[in-house]
Amino acid sequence: MATVATCGGDAVGVGSAVATASKSNVTSFQRRGPRVSGTNDSGPRLVSITGTRPSVRNGQLLVSTGLPALDQLLGGGLAVGTVLLIEEDKYNIYSSLLFKYFLAEGIVNGHTLLVASANEDPANILQELPAPLLDNCKKEFDEDVYNHKTPESNIKMKIAWRYQLLPKMEQIRPVSSSRFGHYYDASKRIPQELIEASKWHGFFLPEKISPTLKVEPCSLTHGYIKLLQFIQNIIYEEGFDGSNPQKKQKNILRIGIQNLGSPLWGDDICCTENGDSGHNLTKFLYVLRGLLRTSLSACIITMPTHLIQNKAFIAHVTNLSDTVVGLESFIGSERETNPLYKDYHGLIHIRQIPRLNNLVCDESDVKDLGFKLKRKLFTIELESGFAFFHSAHF
């Protein structure tokens, strides 16, 4: 098995990660045309797995982010074998919620979870996941929408994406793995029996490293090395590796990494403009993406990019991610008291959408999106006239 060695003598086995990472926009799960009868069936096909569907654009295998409105904005969902980077809001309130939606969707569909964090025990994160909406959710959903109506004068100007991007209420059924994308009640916690029936792996950094361990300055931080080894072991030992197909029924590995790049991970990129750990993080992302490209896995990463002082470094991180979504909270800003934004809690920026199997990334046609966390639901909306104000005053 090939390894990637650091200059400090540490090594992280990543199989063919480096070779596959160079194919920056190609994953291993691509639609195959129908086979002629009598031909050899040994070649790869588009796999059929619970909680997945093929993209109507390129046949790529997709999983839901746990937020159907976001799935639509990303072209139908998150492609298997790719990284979704969430740029955290200032107080890490709403980015944490999107992180939990992604994990909750995995539990509902029976996917295997790998949760990594440097400041919160993964077991505690799972206990805080939102509860899936059941078949009796129609009344609760209607109440949540109508209790937050806007004045009559604003109705004509608003295009509510909760009606454009969400299915009709009659289509919301009990929690079922046959659905792609579920809805969640942010005011309730996921039932304990669902957590107990799920399969998950936790990586809690303080339990994985020794406080007295010394790492060479130019090597990967010990936390990143341990995490890469942990992810690689799960992928290979449990058969998520695309080149070594699972013998049992195929499944998806959902990887969630919280607050990556923060000082808790041993990085100094948030503390100084020319942090020594900048290369550590980019090398980590490069190797991670190589692992994902050849596995039945999808990864979500939250990162406090607002704390990174070197903005050029953010561009490097973006290039090493497939999909990038930024969250901008109004808490503590002038927009919080601005009448124009009274119906919103913040802005969501679709910064990058992957154009898979091509050399360049796609860009979203929709730029001005507001989000609001209501009593039960996280909604994404677009308001006509909002774009004009945004461009005229900011």
SSE arrangement:
Blueprint: E1 3-5, E2 11-13, H1 17-21, E3 52-54, E4 61-63, H2 68-73, E5 78-79, E6 83-87, H3 94-109, E7 112-117, H4 122-127, E8 130-132, H5 137-146, H6 152-155, E9 158-159, H7 161-164, E10 184-189, H8 192-197, E11 200-204, H9 205-208, H10 222-237, E12 253-257, H11 278-293, E13 297-303, H12 311-319, E14 323-329, E15 346-352, E16 369-373, E17 378-383, H13 386-393
Parallel strand pairs: 6-13, 6-14, 7-11, 7-12, 12-13
Antiparallel strand pairs: 1-2, 3-4, 4-5, 8-10, 9-17, 14-15, 15-16, 16-17
Helix pairs in contact: 10-11
Assembly of the depicted chains: single chain
Radius of gyration: 21 Å
How many helices? The count is 13
Number of strand segments: 17
Shape: globular
Helix content: 25-40%
**Helix and strand string, N-terminal first?**
EEHEEHEEHEHEHHEHEHEHHEHEHEEEEH
CATH homologous superfamily placement: P-loop containing nucleotide triphosphate hydrolases
CATH topology: Rossmann fold
Q: How many domains, in number, for the residues?
A: 1
Side-by-side strand order of the widest sheet: 9-17-16-15-14-6-13-12-7-11
> In CATH's first tier, which class applies?
Alpha Beta
Distance between the termini: 52 Å
Please describe what this structure looks like.
The protein is built from 13 helices and 17 strands. The protein has a single domain (52-133, 179-382), classed as Rossmann fold, CATH 3.40.50. The protein is an alpha/beta fold and 394 residues long. The protein is 28% helix and 20% strand. The strands form four sheets. Strands 9-17-16-15-14-6-13-12-7-11 form a ten-stranded mixed sheet, sandwiched between helices. It has helices at residues 17-21, 68-73, 94-109, 122-127, 137-146, 152-155, 161-164, 192-197, 205-208, 222-237, 278-293, 311-319, 386-393, and strands at residues 3-5, 11-13, 52-54, 61-63, 78-79, 83-87, 112-117, 130-132, 158-159, 184-189, 200-204, 253-257, 297-303, 323-329, 346-352, 369-373, 378-383. Component of the elongator complex which consists of ELP1, ELP2, ELP3, ELP4, ELP5 and ELP6. Belongs to the ELP4 family. It comes from Callithrix jacchus (White-tufted-ear marmoset). Keywords: Cytoplasm, Nucleus, tRNA processing. Pathway: tRNA modification; 5-methoxycarbonylmethyl-2-thiouridine-tRNA biosynthesis.
